Amino acid sequence: MNNAEVHELFDHLTCLRSLELSAKMLFSEDVLLQQLPKSVEKLIHLRYLNLSQNEKLEQLPETVCGLFNLQSLNLNWCRNLRRLPRGLGNLINLRYLECLGTTKVDFMPSGIGRLSCLRTLDSVVCSDDNVKEEVSTLEDLGKLINLRNLSIRRLGNVKDASEAEKARLDNKKSLRRLHLNFGHHNGQERNDEQVMEAIQPPPSLEKLEIYWYRGTSLFPNNWIAMSLTNLKKVVISRCLCEVLPTLRTLPSLEYLSIDGLMKVKRVGTEFWGIETDDIDVNEEERALPSSSGIAFPKLKELFFGGMDEWKEWDYGITRGRREERYQLMPCLRSLELLYCPKLKQLPDHLLRTASLEHLSICECPALDKRYYKQRIGQDWHKISHIPTIHINWNLVKGL
After folding, report:
1. Any idea where the R13L1/DRL21-like LRR repeat region domain is (predicted)?
2. What angle do CA 52, 110, 208 make, to 5 degrees?
3. pLDDT tens digits for 262-312?
4. What global pTM score does this model have?
5. Is the Cβ–Cβ distance between 308 and 262 less than 8 Å?
6. 3-state secondary structure string across 43-71
7. Of 25, 99, 208, 227, which has fewest CB within 10 angstroms of its CB?
8. What CA–CA distance (Å, rounded) separates 196 from 217?
């Protein structure tokens, strides 16, 4: 569909409420939109506009900002989109602004704080000092109290943690999903730990994703374990943490993915939330979980991937009477490990979890040798009861 055809379409369909021009609906790369005609301003009744996956689209006309009835603007995966229109803040009825995958957009135009109806904002870009335009900052987010889904990119550009505080995430009582991307390291000094400490999501949060964090401690003040009682899904990827955070106290957590933490060498008591500083108990007692005897009480799916230096996974409880008093991941159904070349052994206690239905071990040669090796590995008997087993993407047991 060329520009003239789209222009003609707008001339005749001025009462449109919904317009679907995504690449998925255009069916062919040959008809991908290269630009949206300025005449889009004629669609004054438009509520929904989907331009997603149009990889030839580089910018939107300023006239789109005159569509005051627009409630949803989808620009997901317009990979060559370079900027958003300056007048975006005029779309005061906008509820959904989706810009996932628009990585060439390096700033958010000023006025975002006026979009008080926003429910979904994907994604806010924290610009660097090289951007000369008038931009929106994290402080503008503080005004958007109705957000349910929020994605923030290039958090590594934030130089003062007080700016992150001004986003007032704690005041967004309806926030359900939060995506934090700190961005690739650019060689400049960063304040990732201070910024992370300043971010205080509300207890309503159900999904948290963190990418490219460069601090050594992921949650400096442990806000994730202190207040996020409704959190169901956590994704931690491409971070420089040396030690995994304690997540065992999250009562609602069902899915946990840890990927690309290249500096982690050992997963142990810190992950399970086990205290080891009681000098009045023996070594076995010192390894027992404090307070509740259940770690990760509702976790169903656990994924580890890209952990190049990970060598040891210890769960801190020896077999016997004491082990029976404590439960680790009692609801676990799926355990997946991908590209963990140095990991040699899995926790026996975890493999004996009665609920475990699926085990996948891919590109983990030491684990392959120990637990499988054509069913003659020394510990094959420890996993052979699991209904479905994948080794190096091959189904070796199950339907």
Report:
1. 138-260
2. 60
3. 999 999 888 876 554 443 444 544 444 444 578 899 999 999 999 999 999
4. 0.90
5. yes
6. CCCCCEEECCCCCCCCCCCHHHHHCCCCC
7. 25
8. 10
